[in-house]
Amino acid sequence: MKKALSLVLAAVMAFSLVACGGSSSSTASAGSTGSASGSTTSNVTVQIGPNPESIDPALNSTIDGGNMLITAFEGLLIVDENNQVQPGQAESWEVSEDGLTWTFHLREGLKWSDGTDLDATDFVYTYKRVADPDTAAPYSQTAVGMIAGYDEAMNGNPDALQVEAPDANTFVVHLSYPCTYFDKLAAFATLSPVQQETIEANGDAWATSPETYISNGPYYMTEWTVGQQIVFTKNPYYKGGWDSDKIVTDTITFLLMEDSTAAYTAYTTGQAQLIKDVPTEEIPSLTKAEDGGEFYVDPVMGTYYLTMNDSIEPFNDVNVRKALSLAIDRDYIANTLMQGTYSPAYKLTGPGITDADGSAYMDKSSSEWIPEDYETAKTMAQEALAEAGYPNGEGFPTITYSTNDAGYHKALAEYLQQCYKEVLGINLEIEIVEWSSFTPMRRAGDYEMARNGWSFDYNDPSSMLELFMTGNANNDGQYSNPEFDAMMENTKIADKEQRFENLHAAEEIVMADYSMIPVAYYNDFWLQSPDLQGTWHSPYGYWYLQYAYIGEPAEDTGADSASVTSTAAESTASEAASSEAAESVASETASSEAAESAVSEAASSEAVASDSASAA
Question: Model-level pTM?
Answer without folding.
Answer: 0.76
